[in-house]
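Can't paste images in this forum, so I'm doing it all in text. The chain is below; anyone willing to post the predicted C-alpha cells underneath?
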Amino acid sequence: MEIDVALRAAAAIAGAAALGQIISRRFPIPLPLFLLAAGLLLGRDGLNIVRSHELEDLIRIVVVLAVALIVFEGGTALRLASLRTLAPVVRNIIVLGLLVTPTVGAFAAWVFLDFDWRMAFLFGALVSVTGPSVLTPLLRSIRVDDRLRDILASEGVIIDPFGALLTLFLLEIVLAETLHVAGPTWWVIERLLIGLAVGAGGAFVVWLLSRTVKRLGGREMALFVIGAAVAAFALAESLAHESGLVAMVLMAIAIGNLRLPQRERVDDLQESVTVWLIASVYVLLAAGISIDDLTGLWPEGLIVVAILALVGRPLLIMLASIRSGLNWREQAFLSAVAPRGVVAASLAGVVAVEASSLAGSDASRLVAMVFVVILLTIGIQSAYAGTLARLLRVQPMTTVIAGAGEVGRRVATLIAGSGEPVLVVETDEDAVMQAREEGLEVLIGDISDTAVLEKIRLNEAKALLLATPDDARNLLAAQLARSKFNCESVFVRVNDVANIEAFQKLGVVPVSQSEAVASELARMVAGPMFQDVLAQVAEDVTVARVVVTSAAAQREIQAIPELRGTLVVLVTRGSDSVIPNGRTELRLGDIVTIFGSLQDLAIARGGLSVVPDPEPIIS
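Text version of the structure:
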C-alpha cells in the first residue's frame, strides 16, 4: 500500500513541477508559490493524493537530500571574485542575520502569537534563512544588477547551514534540563569542522578526476559532479548529523570556481535536477500542513510577517551596510527582498517533533507559522521585486560580446577594466579557455541561436557587440537582437566592407576594421593641417569626430537641434566621405567631423551618440 501511495505522490509532484514551470514562465506567478499551493491542494486537507502522514520516513529522506542538492546547485553559481569583492557586505548580512532576525522574529512571535519564549526563539532562528530554492527562481525572473544579485545569492547559500545549526543549537539548549552552553557550542563546532573537511575533500576529488581523465563528455562530467555531491553529503551526515549542508556549501563554491571541462553541460543538468527537487520539497512539505492551522493564524500571523519584513530586514540591512559602499537604492532593494525557503520549511517539522513535549499545541502552530512566512514573503516580494528594481534603477547593464577572438577579448578586457560587467559568447573551446584565463566570464554557445540569446538575457543587456569573423552569423544575430529581443544598442564588426549597408538597414552600428584603421591613419596625418586652420579661427574652437550611434539622429543635419552652434564639415560613410549641407541625411555608423566650442560639441555628441566617443582630434 505504501508503494502505491508513494507512486501517486511522485506522479502528482512530477505533474506539479512540469505545470509550474509552464505557468511561471508565462504568467507572473513564482514557481515556489505555485508549488506550495499545489501541495496544499494535493495534501490531506485537499485532494489527499499526497498522503504525507503515510510517507513520513520516505519524505524525511527525500527532503533532506533534496535540500542538500538545492544548496549545492546554488553554491556552484557563486564566484570567488565576486565573493572577495562583496565579502564584507555578505559577512555582515550573514552574521547579523543570525542575530537580528531571530531576535525580531522571537519578539514578534512572543507578543502576537503567545509563543513560549523558547518556541519564540526557535521560530526566530527558523525564519533567519532565505535560501537558493526561492532566490534562484526569483533572480532568474527579474532584472537586477550583478552586485545585488551576487549579494542575495551568496546570502541565500551561505546562511542556510548556519541558520540550520543555529536552530538546532537553540533546540539543544531548549531541550536540556540544565543550561550548559559549552555542550551545544562544541556540537556546532564539530559539525562545522567535519562539514568543511568533507566539502574540501569532495571538491578535490572532482578536480583530480577532471585533470586525470581525458576527454570527459558533458553528461559524464555532470553525473560525476552530482554523484560526488551526494556522496559527500552522505559521508558528512554519517560522521556528524547536520554537517552535510556545511559540506555542500564549501564543495559547491570550490567546484563552481574550478575550470571543469563541459562546464555548461554540468550547469544545465544541475539546473534541470534542481527544478524537480524544489518541486518535491515544496509539495511534500506543504501537503502535510493543515489549512485550519493556517487560517487560525489570522490576523496575528500577518502582523508577525509584517514585522519581519518591515522592521527586521531593514534593520539588518542598515546595520550590515555601514561602510559597505552600498547606496540607498541598493540598501532599499536588499531590505525589501528576502523570501524564505525550503531550509526553514524542512527544519520546522523537525523542531516541532523534537520540542513537542514542551511546545504542546504550539508545535503545529510553529510549523504553520513558518509556512505563512514562506507563502507571504514569496508571494508578495516576488510580485513587486521586478517593479521595485525598475523604480530604484538597480537593473543590470551587462555588455554582451560575441566572439572571443583577439578583437573580442581586447574589447571585453577594456570594458571590464572600467568596472562594467561583460559576458563573452563563443563556440570555440580553445578561445573560451583563453578568454577565461584572462579573467573574462564566457558562455559557450552560438550567438545566432535564439536559445543562447534567451539564456544570456539579451533583452536586459546594455549593449551587444558582434565581433565574430563571420558576417553572416553577425547579421543573423543582429536581426534577432533587434526584432525579437528589442536590443537597442547593437554594434557589429564588419569583416567585408560590402556588407556595411546590410547592417545599416537593420538599424545597428557597423564598424569596419579596415575603414577604422584607414580613418585613424588619415586623422593622424591630417592633424597638423587642422591645427593650422584652427589657429587662425579662435583659441576655444575644437574639432571632434563623432560616430552616429543614436537612432534619433538618422535625419537631415538641419533637423538635428543638437548641432546648432556647430559646423559639420565632413561625413564619412564606409569608404566614402562627403562635404555635407543642411539637407544631408545622417545614418547609423557615419563618422561626423564637427567644429565648435567644447560646450557645443558636448551637446552635439549627446545628440548623435549613445556611447562615449573618441577624443577630439585637436583641442
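DSSP finds 25 helices and ten strands in the chain. The first helix runs from residue 2 to 26.
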